[in-house]
Each structure stands twice: as C-alpha cells, then as structure tokens.
Amino acid sequence: GDARVRGQTGVLAERRGSYPFIDCRLLNNTTLSGEIGTKKKVKRLLSFQRYFHASRLLRGIVPQASLYLLDEDYLGQARHMLSKVGMWDFDIFLFDRLTNGNSLVTLLCHLFNVHGLIHHFQLDMVTLHRFLVMVQEDYHSQNPYHNAVHAADVTQAMHCYLREPKLANFLTPLDIMLGLLAAAAHDVDHPGVNQPFLIKTKHHLASLYQNVSVLENHHWRSTIGMLRESRLLAHLPKEVTQDIEQQLGSLILATDINRQNEFLIRLKSHLDNQDLRLEDAQDRHFMLQIALKCADICNPCRLWELSKQWSERVCEEFYRQGDLEQKFELDISPLCNQQKDTIPSIQIGFMTYIVEPLFERWAQFTGDTPLSENMLNHLRRNKAKWRSLLHKQHSSNRSSDHSGQVTGSQEQTLNEEETP
C-alpha cells in the first residue's frame, strides 16, 4: 500500500513539474538554475501553444523562425537518412543537425509509422507529435550526454534490435511500441548527475524513492505524467493503459546499471538452459529489457568516430559533477575526478566490465547475426584504440615528469587517432 501511494505521489508531483533538479544551494551558480526550471514549467502549462505549434508542423507550415534553418535541402537530407534508419552506422549527430535539434521527435514519428503503430493503436498524429515534443523538451540540452540526442540514439539502436530475426518473429505491436517509447523516454528529465550525488545531497527525489533506482523511477514517473497529460492513449481501455504504464516502468527500471549483474545472471541462465520461450509474453518482456539495456550502453559498439564523441560527452558530464562536488567540499565520486580519471581509462573499464559481458550474451541470443558481429568487432577495435591512447598518455606523462612540461610533439601524439 505504501509503495503504491509513493508511486502515485511521484506521478502527480512530476506531472505538476514541481521538482527542481538539484537541491538548490548547490546549483544556484550553475546552468541548472531556477529560472530555467520556471520557464519550463510555464511552457509545460501552455498546452494550447503546443497543440497549435504541432498542428502547424503537421499541416506543413514551418514556423517562421526556423525557415532559414529547415530549408528543403536539409529536410531532403534528413528524409534520406531516415530511409537508412535501420543501418548500424546511422549518424545521430548529423541527423540532429539536419532536423534542427528535433532528432527525437522526427525519428519517433517515422518509426511509429514504419512499424504500423499509428494505424494499429488508432493514434492521433497531432497528439502523438505533442507528446513527443513534451518528451524531447523534458531532456536537458545543457547536459553533454544525457540529452535528447542520446535518447534518439538509444531509440535508433532499439529499432535495430527489434528487427533481429530471433526477436522480430515473436514481437507484437504492443511490444514494439513499448520498446520504442521506453527507449525514447528512458532518461527523460535527467539532471546530469548520478544517484549517489542525489543521495548525499539529500535530494527530495532520493527521499521519495527511498534511494532505490532514484533516477530511473523519476524517468518512468515523468513519462507516465506526460502520457496522461497528452492523452495519447486516452482512447484505449483503462486496463490496457495501466498495463502499458507498468511495462514501461519495468523496462525503464531495467536500465539501472546497479542491476546489471541481476540481468546478466538471469540471461546467462536462460541461454545455458535454452529455456527462453518467446511465445510467452513474460520472456518477450525480459528480452525487451535486455534489448533496452544494450541500446542504452551501445556507444562503444558504434563506429569509432561516433563512439569517441559519446565517450567524450559522458566523461565531460562526469567531470562537471566532480567539479560541483569539489566546489561544495563533497567527496568526489568515482570517475568524476578529471585529474585522475582519464577518458581512455574510464572507457576501457566500462567496456571490459559492463559492455562486453552484456553484448557477448546478446550475440549468443541472436545467434551471431551480422549486426551482433559488427557491434562486437567495433567494440574490440574501439577498446584497442583507447588502450593505445592510454599508453600514449602514460608515455607522455613519464616524459613530462622528466622535463617538467609536455612538448608540442608529445601533445600531437596524444591527439593522433591512427588505428593501432
């Protein structure tokens, strides 16, 4: 009973937009200011404005302010990219630029159409667009990593995984819609700091969710709030919408990295015993959880040029948290000390202990498909790249210790990106 009340409280509070991100005194001097929060609350209340903007877009009337950015050439290139949305080398950064920062909305509208979800669930296009704009706007563009582009990247990866024959042959329209929605909203309203930070600063979200999957619970409850506010699924029977809300929660909560071993052990057991029955909704849901977990941490399995950008972005977010902790005399969290935790060392550890075990099991599940082999090949090459860069850093540091400074040639060496 208490858990149910807490859950309902979480949805209601987050629907009202009553939560600032970090307790106050810590962020008074940062980009996550109260002023930004207030503006977002006001925008959230202007649902008529959202509706008007969305309906103009869907009638093909582009807002005047965007005309010079969204010319036909850009739109044509974006449409061409969407025709290859199932390719693993899809460049989400380029797509985001071509859509003027609307990669998540544009991608989801396309994928809902491609998978026949609009027709199957009798969704209203204006309402769908309005909901997706709400989701996209609730991501924080000032976060280097946990922003709407990351959500779009995870969604594109999820689309690729949903097409894997081992899974695709059993998926229902509901499974596909849940997978895409969970991918799109899995980090919504992320504050750019991790759970331990929220706990040690006594943030109210940590208190609300009793220090358990704090961020993931917040992402889920925020998503439910937006679903209800948009009335996207209001025409469906109540028991169906309740089931969708619960399954979305189960999927989003699975992305909590603290539960990694729990899911790996269960997946290994299923694969070893060969007892996965994808005709069974429960087993399909479990594999959707695994697929979302893979999509969420697939950056090291992308092309080096894309993977490296994501690595730099996530480490920049870590370092910002570390700077904040140092400023307010808190213990600096692991991986957040820019002086000690280098990007290559962080990435090598992440790949070794988190990414490789999961993707090797995923490849075992899919049956070593071209996509799985491609991802593992990228993962191995990228790990070798980071090892090479780490070695160069160590060599440079030793030289620096002897000479007292890094020479220009050594600095150039650090920036080299030749394949080892």
UniProtKB/TrEMBL annotation:
Domain PDEase: 70-393
Residues reported to bind Zn(2+) 1: H150, H186, D187, D296
InterPro entries the UniProt entry points to: HD/PDEase_dom, PDEase, PDEase_catalytic_dom, PDEase_catalytic_dom_sf, PDEase_CS
Keyword terms: cAMP, Hydrolase, Metal-binding
Enzyme category, top tier: hydrolase
SMART domains registered for this protein in UniProt: HDc (SM00471)
Residues given in the record as Zn(2+) 2 binding sites: D187
Keyword Hydrolase among UniProt keywords: yes
Presence of the UniProt keyword Metal-binding in the record: yes
Coiled-coil parts of chain: none
GO molecular function: 3',5'-cyclic-AMP phosphodiesterase activity; metal ion binding
Listed EC numbers: 3.1.4.-
Protein's recorded name: Phosphodiesterase
Originating species: Crypturellus soui
Phylogenetic classification of the source organism: Eukaryota, Metazoa, Chordata, Craniata, Vertebrata
